[in-house]
Structure formats: structure tokens, C-alpha cells
Design brief:
This protein has 343 residues and is α/β, with parallel strands linked by helices. A hairpin with a 4-residue loop joins β6 and β7. It is globular. It has two domains: 133 residues, ATPase, nucleotide binding domain (Nucleotidyltransferase, domain 5, 2-Layer Sandwich); 173 residues, 2-Layer Sandwich (Nucleotidyltransferase, domain 5), CATH 3.30.420. It contains ten helices and ten strands. It has a five-stranded mixed β-sheet with strand order 3-2-1-4-5, with helices on both faces. A five-stranded mixed β-sheet has the order 8-7-6-9-10, sandwiched between helices. The structure holds 5'-O-[(R)-(carboxyoxy)(hydroxy)phosphoryl]adenosine and zinc ion. 5'-O-[(R)-(carboxyoxy)(hydroxy)phosphoryl]adenosine (KG4) binds next to α4 and α5.
């Protein structure tokens, strides 16, 4: 007998994107995201404003996702939401909404770890794209996290290394701010890097043991370099923007690639994935593909829409938790810090 289709509504609100998605098994029926432009003015996400914008956006976004999917709310099997990690005020909006919606519709509720969501986005159906086999390594690089994760099964993950200070996305955004780009500037660095020479400038790279990362020294190195050069030539940044972006991007990508390559070698794992907002970076995607060819890895690079925060990744994780009957009750609360625990 054919298995019953499972329809999951996913809700994501951990940072500054309000997103809702509807999945039928592993296929995305809709994935709708409202971003928040307001933070551009402030050079970073302002938690209070993010929380308010989530409140304004959540109902139209969920309503829109259901309509786009052509699914009636009564057809949903469960509601999955991001419990953490993230900004508490932002998480509270998605969590409260999901709890109320589940209660009023009498549907099961599923809590999802945002970082697990980024990784399991690799299991969303996409024609012609293969899915990783267990165990695989995932370099999870976002605005808040930088981790090397050993993925042993859908819900069994172990963090082998992480950043001891800034995340990779933060490094991109802080460097972008020094160059005068509005927040979040990671994507601007990527665009300008395509036109520049990646070997034009050298910046200090950290020496950190094992599989951990550090990016705060790089920011300081860029800051001092720009201050020195701008004192000599006031137009230094404008005249060298593309080369600066290309050199900064190369440095961040080299720091990331060094650790994932070391870990893959030590564990003798050849299935290597990337996930999170920074996995949209063209330099990182290229470096992973090239290193993969050289080391005979099978590499997994997410589609752009599943790199940055989205609810499809929350819904797919919800689907795997649904399969294991891992539901939560109305006492669940949002958590700013939520480790990627081994279940
Ligand atoms: O996963 P994500 O959407 O949100 C968090 O969970 O943090 O990641 C956002 C981060 C930001 O730091 C943003 O600048 C970075 O991902 N990002 C990029 C690119 N696209 C997004 N960084 C470098 N190159 C890109 N193309
Ligand atoms: Zn994220």
C-alpha cells in the first residue's frame, strides 16, 4: 500500500527573515520569505525592530505560503517552527504563532533547531540533484554560526568544530561595513570580488588548533590595513574596491576550506556539504567544487534559495521529526541558545 503523503507547514523567524513554507513529503509546494530592509540603516540587525517586523509579516507570509501551495489549512499534518538558536524576540514571534495556530487547528507541533534545518535542506527534492549519504560532513556557515558538523543520520549530528569568536557571515558583513557597504554586505563583497584580483592584498590568517575557526583577527587586520592605506591615499578604498573584496573573500574561503579539508582527511569522509547563508558565496562554492575534484569528494551545494534563512528547511526537518513522532506540547518556549544536540 502506498504511504500517506505528509504535509508540513514550516515557520522560520530566528533572525530578520519571516518565512513560511509548505512541503508535501520532501517536495516544496511553497516557500515564501519577507526580508527586513529596516536594518540596512543601522549596519546590523536591531533585535527590537526585527521582532516588530516579524509580528507584522507573520500572518501575511503564512497565509501567502498556504495559498501559493494550494493547500487548505485542514490538510496540514503538522506545524514545524524554529525554536532556536537565534534572536529571542524574533524566535518568540514564530514560536507563539506556531503554538497558537497548532492549538486552534488541533494539529501536532514540532520544534526545529535552525542549524539542523540548514543542513537538512540538502534533502529537499530537487530534480537532477543527488542527496548526501550518511555519514557526511557539513560546513555550516551563516551570520551567527560557523560549524563543521558530522551528520550521522537525519537527526543525529555532532559538532566537531566551531568558531571561537565571529561567524564567517559576520566576518563578511564586518569587512563589508569597513568598505562602506550597507548591512548585510556579504553578498556585495561577493559581487565585487568577481571583478577583482584575489591575490592583490594579503590579510592575517588565524592559527587555531583542530577544527575550530576564528575570524576576529581578520577583521582587525583589515581595519588596520584600510586605516593605514586611507591615511596615505584618501581614495584607496574606492580605487581598489574590487581587489579588496576579492582578497578578503579569498582569505575567508581559505580559512574555511583549510579546516573542512583537514577534517575530511582525518575522518576519511568524502561526502562534503555546505549550508547556511555564506554557502551562497561564489568563492566558497567554487573552492569546494575544485577541492572536491582534486580530493575525489562528492560535494553538495544548496540551491541559492535554501542557503539563506528559509522555512522550507524548517519544514523538511519537521518532516523527519514527524516520521519519528517527535512532537512538543504547548509548554515549549523559544530558546536563543539551542545546541545541535545528538538525539
Ligand atoms: O543563514 P543566514 O541567512 O542567516 C543566519 O542564520 O545567520 O546567513 C546570513 C549571512 C549574512 O552574514 C550574509 O552576509 C551572508 O550570510 N551571505 C553571504 C552571501 N549571501 C549571504 N556572504 C558571502 N557571500 C554571499 N553571497
Ligand atoms: Zn540561518
Amino acid at each position: 500500500m502506498a504511504q500517506k503523503d505528509i504535509i508540513i507547514l514550516g515557520i522560520e523567524s530566528s533572525c530578520d527573515d519571516t518565512s513560511a513554507a509548505v512541503l508535501k513529503n520532501n517536495a516544496v509546494l511553497s516557500n515564501l520569505t519577507a526580508g527586513q530592509k529596516v536594518h540596512e540603516l543601522y549596519g546590523g540587525v536591531v533585535p527590537e525592530l526585527a521582532s516588530r517586523a516579524h509580528q507584522q509579516n507573520i500572518i501575511p507570509v503564512v497565509d501567502g505560503a498556504l495559498k501559493l501551495a494550494g493547500v487548505d489549512i485542514n490538510e496540514i499534518d503538522a506545524i514545524a517552527f524554529t525554536r532556536g538558536p537565534g534572536l529571542l524576540g524574533s524566535l518568540l514571534v514564530g514560536t507563539s504563532f506556531a503554538k497558537s495556530f497548532a492549538l486552534s487547528l488541533n494539529k501536532p507541533l514540532i520544534e526545529v533547531n535552525h542549524m539542523m534545518g540548514h543542513i537538512l535542506a540538502h534533502f529537499i527534492d530537487d530534480e537532477g540533484k543527488s542527496k548526501p549519504e550518511f555519514p557526511f560532513l557539513c560546513l555550516t556557515v551563516s551570520g551567527g554560526h560557523t560549524q563543521i558538523v558530522l551528520v550521522e543520520d537525519y537527526l543525529k549530528m555532532k559538532v566537531l568544530g566551531s568558531t571561537i569568536d565571529d561567524a564567517a557571515g559576520e566576518a563578511f558583513d564586518k569587512a563589508a561595513k569597513l568598505l562602506g557597504f550597507p548591512y548585510p554586505g556579504g553578498v556585495k563583497i561577493d559581487q565585487h570580488a568577481k571583478l577583482g584580483n584575489p591575490n592583490a592584498f594579503d590579510f592575517a590568517k588565524p592559527v587555531i588548533k583542530g577544527y575550530d575557526f576564528s575570524f576576529s583577527g581578520l577583521k582587525t587586520s583589515i581595519l588596520y590595513f584600510l586605516q593605514k592605506k586611507s591615511a596615505q591615499h584618501p581614495n584607496f578604498i574606492d580605487e581598489n574596491l574590487n581587489d579588496l573584496c576579492a582578497s578578503i573573500q579569498r582569505t575567508i574561503v581559505e580559512i574555511l576550506m583549510k579546516k573542512i579539508t583537514l577534517c575530511a582527511k582525518d575522518l576519511n569522509i568524502k561526502q562534503i556539504a555546505i549550508a547556511g547563508g555564506v554557502s551562497a558565496n561564489s568563492g566558497l562554492r567554487h573552492a569546494l567544487t575544485e577541492t572536491g575534484r582534486e580530493k575525489e569528494w562528492e560535494v553538495f551545494i544548496p540551491k541559492f534559495e535554501y542557503c539563506t534563512d528559509n522555512a522550507a528547511m524548517i519544514a523538511i526537518t519537521g518532516k523527519y521529526l514527524f516520521d519519528k513522532n517527535q512532537f512538543v506540547d504547548q509548554s515549549v518556549s523559544a530558546k536563543a541558545r539551542l545546541p545541535l544536540s545528538i538525539k
